[in-house]
Amino acid sequence: MRFLVAVALTALIASPSVAADRDAEWIVTRHVASIVPPDGAGGVAVALRIEGRSLFFNYGWADRANERPITTDTLFNLASLRKVFEATLLAQAVRNGDLRLDDPVAKYVVELQQGGDIRQVTLGHLATHTSGLLLPQDHPPWPDWGYTLPEFIHTLNAWKPDRAPGQRHLYTHAGFILLQLALERRYAIPIDELIDQRVLQPLGMTSTMLPQGDDGPRGRLTPEYKSRAVQGYSDNSEPIGQPGEQTSYYHWPGTGQMYSSPRDMRPFSPPISTNCRWTSRCMTRWRWRTVVSFGSAPATHRRWPGRSRTGSRPSSKNTAA
Questions:
Q1: Where are the domains of the chain?
Q2: In the chain, is it the N or the C terminus that has fewer CB atoms within a 10 Å radius of its CB?
Q3: Burial (Cβ within 10 Å: 0-12, 13-18, ≥19) of residue 261
């Protein structure tokens, strides 16, 4: 179903018209209706790019108890979409000659020079999920414990892969935590400041943030941002945590979740060329670059964002250049 939707929406790129906008809304609404329950617990926002224009479609509640609907400016936990920001920082650093993809991560996180196999892992391995690094926090059953920074370093130094780094693709959140450390060490700047200075400010993304600034290890949203954040829900429609909550298996600054809104993510999602039509490569590129779907479940819920628990409240649509 997801692939068919991508095909249909790609066909609309060639004819940016009111009729095409209506067709896009119909396709998006049908897709959302097929994956969400009707009980009203949660909501979904979809941002769609067509010929340089942005269409926003909003469904359901950001907070059902307080009857706060999803809007284009509602803040969502970006969960693993945060990895794209760190990958962007890495790409910028390689382009500028500040580091190389084949640099060992131990070159920058020097504590790892005392380790074993971790010394063979490169920045490129981390960015492409080919390091082979897999910790208990990367897969179910999800543990109820995590790491301080010294514990994380100790675990990496003792790590023993079953294959050499670079031999297979294996999704790893721990790998991007390590990439974050390497970027911070290379520039001697905290990761939240790197993201803000090199990505958010140049793109004018004023509603995207990695919370920092309190006495906890991961920071908190400001009261104004928290009032715009969604409430997460469980499979049985019960609230999970609080809006804007920060959770992580990693207990030091910079390891929490980023938050953003559909409108603010618009400049971070470049449009695809109208010359792209029906090739498999084109379709995949279009799906990732053109549509950003946000759901209300927090990262700890571990669901694809568009599949969060949502209701059937009528959608609203906004258009921006």
A1: 2-75+262-320, 84-191
A2: C
A3: buried
Who contacts 238 (Cβ-Cβ below 8 Å, separation ≥6)? Answer: none
In whole angstroms, what is the distance from residue 262 CA to residue 195 CA? 18
pTM: 0.79
- Sign of the dihedral defined by the CA atoms of residues 99, 102, 108, 109, in that order: positive
Q: Which two tokens stand for residue 260?
A: 């953003």
Query: Which residues have CB under 8 Å from 318's CB, separation 6+?
Result: 55, 56, 58, 72, 263
Residue 21 banded pLDDT, cuts 50, 70, 90: confident
Q: How far is CA 209 from CA 43, 142, 269, in A?
A: 21, 26, 16
Is the per-residue pLDDT at 239 higher than 50? yes
Residue 31 has pLDDT above 50, yes or no: yes
Whether 53 contacts 321, CB under 8 Å = yes
The larger pLDDT score, comparing residue 34 to residue 69, is at 69
Angle at 309 between CA 236 and CA 79, to 5 degrees: 115
**Residues 310 and 41 sit within 8 Å (Cβ to Cβ):** yes
Name the packing angle between helices 149-158 and 173-187 (round to 10°): 110
Which tokens hold the place of 91? 């790409």
Distances (CA, A) of 58 to 31, 115, 140, 286: 13, 49, 31, 21
Task: For 57, list phi and psi in degrees, rounded to 5.
Answer: -125, 130
DSSP 153-186: HHHHHH---SS-TTSS----HHHHHHHHHHHHHH
